[in-house]
Amino acid sequence: MSKYKQLLVLLCLFLTLSSVFYISVIQKSQQVTKQKITQIERQIALDLPLLDLSNELLKHSGNKDAVNSYIKTLNSYINMSGLKVVAIAPKGEMLAPVNLHQITRSLSTNNGPVLVVFNVQQTHFTLSHFIYYFIFLVLSVLISFWVKFAFIKQSNKQFNNAQHQSITEPTPLMLIVDLNDKTLSSSCNAEQKVGLANKPLCFYLALVEYCTNNDDVALSHNKDVPEELLELANKYFYRLVELGHTVRKRPNFNNSLEKTLSEIRAALDEVLSECPEEKELYYPPKAYGEGSRSRLHSYGLANIKKGNIEIRGK
Question: Are 243 and 179 contacting, i.e. CB atoms less than 8 angstroms apart?
Fold first, then answer.
């Protein structure tokens, strides 16, 4: 994780925590102020008959000093910073406009409505609040570093897993047959190339294609080579003619089958000398034993599949 991403995480965390705290403080302060104003209204409503307010209908001027003294006494009992009673007067005498920090409530009396003006000064950035914001900043820094270390740990784990897979799961071996120079090589050692004569080369390529297209096929030494396999071998031979490797008459792939297979095995032994465990996949099996066991033997490639061999110049 880069420094910019870590800084972005830090800022997002700090702003989120601070915003939640700020909104909570505002809502709590508004709720407490509303409850306090309701309590004060009830007290004033009880004390209104005792207050000497002016009465325009009765031409009574009232006692403003007594009202102001009552307001001063009332404010001393409120015991809440930011909330004070500013004025108590009949509605007709309330001429001054109410500012943004003032709230006006109306009380009903026998002589008409009486307005009570409250001054509300809500403070959201006190010393205790700044302490909370500092705590949020420290938490955001710690969490951002924890996220960074967790990200680095996860990245290292993925990197180690990728390295482990690359070590424990090597690239599968592929046999490479190049018709352009009539050579065999492998993907594990592409520099080591082994030449092969026309007949065994064409027969091996035909054997690979035939066994790929025909699963569980049995190719016995005691029987003639299948016509489909012969056609494939002839196809590869004509390709060698096109590439200019031979102008001779095509060979008889039915003759000297064991010699042809021996030449193929010898070339594969040399090509796959560094990967002997892969030899079974490409190696035409030898016949072991005599009599019935040898007659049941198949020289077909039982496990060969598309993708195990690459033919260049095809």
Answer: yes
Our CA angle for 260, 265, 269, nearest 5°, is: 155
- The residue with tokens 């065999």 is 184
Q: What does DSSP assign to residue 112? A: -
pTM: 0.48
Which parts of 177-226 fold into alpha helices (H)?
A: 198-213
CB 260 within 8 A of CB 274: no
312: left (phi over 0), alpha (psi -120 to 50) or beta: beta
Calculate the alpha carbon distances from 302 to 11, 208, 305 in Å: 64, 10, 9
pLDDT, tens digit (0-9, with 9 covering 90-100), for 116-162: 889 888 776 677 778 888 888 888 888 888 888 888 888 777 777 77
57 class by beta-carbon count within 10 Å (0-12 exposed, 13-18 middle, 19+ buried): exposed
Rounded to a whole number of angstroms, the CA Rg of the chain reads 50
Let me know the angle formed at the C-alpha of 142 by 139 and 146, rounded to the nearest 5 degrees. 135
Q: Are the C-beta atoms of residues 268 and 195 closer than 8 Å to each other?
A: no
Q: What burial class does residue 250 get, using C-beta atoms within 10 Å of its C-beta: 0-12 exposed, 13-18 middle, 19+ buried?
A: middle
pLDDT, tens digit (0-9, with 9 covering 90-100), for 238-284: 888 888 887 678 888 888 888 999 999 999 888 888 877 777 888 88
